[in-house]
Amino acid sequence: MRYVDEYRNAEAAQTYAQAIASITTRPWTIMEICGGQTHTIVKFGIESLLPKQLTLVHGPGCPVCVTPVELIDKALAIASRPEVIFTSFGDMLRVPGSNNDLLSVKAAGGNVRMVYSPLDALRIAEKNPAKKVVFFAVGFETTAPANAMAVFQAKQMKIKNFSILCSHVLVPPAIEVILSSPGNTVQGFLAAGHVCTVMGYEEYIPIAERYRVPIVVTGFEPVDILQGIYMTVKQLEEKRYDVENQYARSVQKEGNLAAKRFMAEVFEPVDRKWRGIGKIPLSGYQLNKAYASFDADKIFQTEHITTRESPLCISGLVLQGLKKPHECSAFRALCSPEHPLGAPMVSSEGACAAYYHFSPITHLQKETTQ
């Protein structure tokens, strides 16, 4: 199938790997932003194809992973109410809060349902006018247009028993936090292709110029990743700091203008907490004043809920590229997909889950402890 087989072609992958080796003259550290890219790198053994001078580190590219514990606790508090039908994508159901997760609330009698779209949640609200239906709106810019559409339609249809618990986060501010950190070692970025399909990549241009780092918008298949790495290393070796687009089959510089207009209609930027990182200025979306009546945080008065994260979980260091998952003392021993301490072990795009399932290093660790 085109765009699958074509970008998993072993011969093309080897060609790019050889090209990367031929131009690499010194050590470089490159961060992939997206968790989907992380899974491709680990699952297909991309690092084993690269010269030893190159180090890949994993960024905060999983919206489930960066959702702070206090947002999960707010979701749990709302979902536990008898008048509520709480809806969410499946990957959020097992993310642990302070004491339990949404599946535990469901097991205790809460009306928690998995949906595949916020519009599914809106239809549930239509069919259950006596209930208050809440959708857990988690995601980067990629999922924001669909969530904006659901709220917009609810207002147009005068459906007053529908709301969203909004946890949208934005990529460019997170990149700036990483680059401005005193311990930063990242010298180039593979930007997330799906985010840029919506937003374009104009926002990245001043970041590349200000911090003198190349940023390459990159897809998700093995050949995509290797081509993105090649383009990044080529810039570094030539001392160029531009934004380039490897994922041209999907991404345009200006992005999806219709989707961006819709997001601007419903959302406004806000300071947002990130799991393990803390508050990043203007790094999230919230509903603007015109749509504030659909804000579950206000409707159910959960703004006061605050929570401290587990001291055993180093997800913040993993999400900033400062540690690899297998360097966590809890990895496999106290933290696994069946009993996770943090979201990166639960999410289908989490770095910890990728290492648990695919990394030969961690499987070797497992064998030596048995």
Class of the largest domain, according to the CATH hierarchy? Alpha Beta
With strands numbered from the N-terminus, the spatial order across the biggest sheet is: 2-1-7-8-9
CATH superfamily of the largest domain, called what?
Answer: HypD, alpha/beta domain 2
Strand content: 15-25%
Main sheet characteristics:
5 strands, parallel
Helix-strand sequence: HEHEHHEHEHEHEHEHHEHEHEEHHHH
Please estimate the helix content.
25-40%
Gross morphology is: globular
Question: How many distinct domains?
Answer: 2
Low-confidence stretches: 362-370
Q: How would you classify the helix and strand content by structural class?
A: alpha/beta
Average of per-residue pLDDT values: 89
Radius of gyration: 21 Å
Using the coordinates shown, work out and report the CATH topology of the largest domain.
Answer: Rossmann fold
Query: Which architecture name of the largest domain does CATH use?
Result: 3-Layer(aba) Sandwich
Distance linking N and C termini: 41 Å
Beta strands, count: 11
Query: What count of helical segments does DSSP give?
Result: 16
Write a compact overview of the structure shown.
With 370 residues, the protein is α/β, with parallel strands linked by helices. 39% of the residues lie in helices and 17% in strands.
